[in-house]
Specification:
Elements (H helix, E strand, L loop, with lengths): L44 H12 L8 H18 L4 H38 L5
Helix pairs in contact: 1-2, 1-3, 2-3
Length: about 130
């Protein structure tokens, strides 16, 4: 005759310390699907590139700031479609790109205007007979 299992506290099948059968962990869903556990979303690479190129534009005479503007707009459209993170970096890259591009454009216009004045006045300041 078999003995019943040892149950000193009288929990029966409700023993909280008894080994539980193995079960699958809950599946993580995206935050917008109604689950309380948000899934990990990656940062958009174009957004990162946009911000970095916008910062580098200060020292590269604005050459990379045009790429920062392009990458920033592409990153924003990708973020809307894929719901990745990095929207703030894309906006920062756009702002830096536009500011640096405008700043260098004003600089070069002023620089060319200054040389036009210098050479224009030198050509007309000759002696008259």
């Amino acid at each position: 005759m078999a003995q019943p299992p040892y149950d000193p506290y009288g929990y029966g099948s409700n023993d909280p310390y008894a080994p539980q059968p193995y079960s699958q962990p809950p599946v993580q869903h995206h935050y917008y699907s109604g689950s309380s556990v948000p899934a990990s979303r990656g940062t958009n690479g174009m957004a990162t590139a946009s911000m970095v190129l916008g910062l580098v534009g200060f020292v590269s005479c604005g050459l990379t700031s045009v790429l920062a503007i392009i990458f920033g707009h592409v990153a924003q459209s990708q973020i809307k479609r894929t719901r990745e993170e990095g929207s703030g970096m894309a906006v920062a890259g756009l702002i830096l790109g536009y500011i640096v591009t405008a700043g260098w454009a004003i600089f070069w216009i002023f620089y060319i205007w200054l040389w036009a004045i210098v050479f224009g006045s030198a050509a007309t300041s000759g002696t008259t007979y």
